[in-house]
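= Paired protein data =
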Amino acid sequence: MMMGCCTATGMFFGLLGMLTPLIALGAVIYLLAAKSRNHELGEVR
């Protein structure tokens, strides 16, 4: 019973650990895209 619980927890944290760099990369790309979009809007004003 405990082994199953630990395995599920380990799989969850392992998956979270693998996804964290992808999430961070996506956030950086999103911020850069939003910044460039806002910059273009600023030039129009």
Remarks:
- Residues 13 and 42 are 42 Å apart (CA to CA).
- The mean pLDDT is 78.
- The first helix runs from residue 2 to 44.
